[in-house]
Amino acid sequence: MNAFLLVGSPKGRKSASYLLGSMLAEGMRKRGAAVSEGMVHEGLRSEDGTARLLDSVDGADLVLFAFPLYIDSLPAPFTRLLELISERRARVAPAGSPRLAVVVQCGFPEAHQCETAVGICRLFADRTCMRWAGALAMGMGGSVGGDPGIMPGGGKNILDAIGMASESLANGGAIPEAATALFAKPLMRRWLYTMIGNLGWRMELRKNKARRPLTYRPYSQE
Amino acid sequence: MKALILDGSREGDSLTPVAVLGMTSALAGRGHSVELVRPRELAIAPCTGCFGCWTRTPGECVIMDDARDVVGSYVGSDLVVFVTPVTFGGYSSQLKKLLDRIILSVLDPRFTVVGGEVHHRLRYRRYPKTVGFGTLPSPDPDAERLFARLVARNGINVHQHSGVEILAGVTDPVSARRSAVRLLDRAGVPA
To answer: Which CATH number fits domain B2-186: 3.30.930.10, 1.25.40.20, 3.40.50.360, 3.90.1580.10?
Structure first.
């Protein structure tokens, strides 16, 4: 089986989306799938890069999207890629109907805030003759660093969910509902996450030696 | 009253310009001044996710391009209308590249609870009312529902309720104007 992982974070391989997507890809490789990777932002910067992304989607049995939630949906370049894939599949009758699975994370504590983005991906699959293979959506994406081992609780729920999902996807199935539910479980208490987050913004401001307060209103007309 | 129309039409899109005409006419008919922004004609880089607009130059994006001026227009408006081809239930990539650059910079990064969910705090004392005016070639209940949900969720980001109207297969400005009037009435935009 030939899978193609599309990473939709502007931070590319340094992103939480890449970490989660590549863990899923790795789990599938261990089960015999061939998985290649493409970075959406980087690819769309050139015609050649865009063509490579589109060709890779065409040649895949399974397409995996991994992206951060941006304003309740996909980042703009990923939306552009969906438009391009759709145009190509409308113009040239697609040879097959690949499956589409999604991994999405948001910086809010609640995983359900990713629902509209998942809905957009699902509708995209439906309208482009792809077969929906489910989604893993999580909140508290701000606590996903470069190493799953340092996630709260060792990232056990995340790792278990990805293990279940990669096994099913590699065997031609969809992401099991149990994996979706496990992946969506909060990594810590909501109050703790927001407290750490609020402190983090202030520390970052100080680290960057910002000259204005966090609450500055540059466009205020009052 | 100042209204800002963000026109998310894409190259070759014949329906969204009709919606823009209808909305412009409806707003002008109520005596409101209208600023029209067409992202596909502007130089707007994608958001890089650097959070510079929160932790380096609070309230301002660190990328120096046309999006910065639009943030000023957004903050200074009383009403913002997202006019867009409904794209798999979402916005066009043209509108989305602008929204990705506007929304973070008008929010305060710190968290607060809105309607039982965690969202960001507001940076400004007042925000424009936001409505979505989507176009589709023909009726599509799934896409329409999702679009309405998305606009509503975007409203929550700025702690508001947002309204939506869909133009399905509408090619004449008179019908588009009628729908725009309906949307403005529902949103409580004064005549």
So the answer is: 3.40.50.360
pLDDT digits (tens, 9 = 90+) for B5-33: 999 999 999 999 999 999 999 999 999 99
Chain B CB contacts of A205 under 8 Å are 54-55, 58
Q: Tell me, what's the pLDDT at B163?
A: 92
- Amino acid letter for position A217: R
Of B60, B87, B89, the CB nearest to A119: B89
Determine the pLDDT at residue A143: 85
Distance CA B159, CA B99 (A): 16
Per the structure block, which two tokens stand in for B58?
């609070």
Question: What is residue A96's predicted lDDT score, i.e. its pLDDT?
Answer: 81
What is the C-alpha separation between A123 and A69, in angstroms, rounded? 17
What does the DSSP assignment read for A21-60?
HHHHHHHHHHTT-EEEEEEHHHHTTSHHHHHHHHHHHHT-
Nearest alpha carbon to residue A102 among A143, A77, A131: A131
Tell me phi and psi for residue B110, to 5 degrees.
Answer: -65, 150
Find the mean pLDDT for residues A34-41.
98
State the DSSP code for B47: P
CA distances to A37, A71, A85, B23, B24 from A82, rounded to whole Å, are: 16, 17, 5, 27, 29
- CA dist B114 and A9 (Å) reads 27
- Asked if residue B123 has pLDDT above 70, the reply is yes
Q: Give dist(CA B110, CA B72) in Å, integer.
A: 21
Closest partner residue to A198 (CB to CB) among B10, B88, B110 is B110
Q: What b/e readout covers B10-49, taking b as 16+ CB neighbours within 10 angstroms?
A: beebebbbbbbbbbbbbbeeeebebeebbbbeeebbbbbb
Confidence of residue A146 (pLDDT cuts 50, 70, 90): low
Distance between B9 CA and the closest CA of chain A, angstroms: 13
CATH topology assigned to domain A2-188: Rossmann fold (3.40.50)
**How close does chain A come to B99, measured CA to CA in Å?**
8
What pLDDT does B2 receive? 96
**Cβ contacts of A206 within 8 Å, gap of 6 or more:** none
Could you tell me what percent of chain B has a pLDDT over 90? 98
Indicate the pTM of the whole model.
0.96
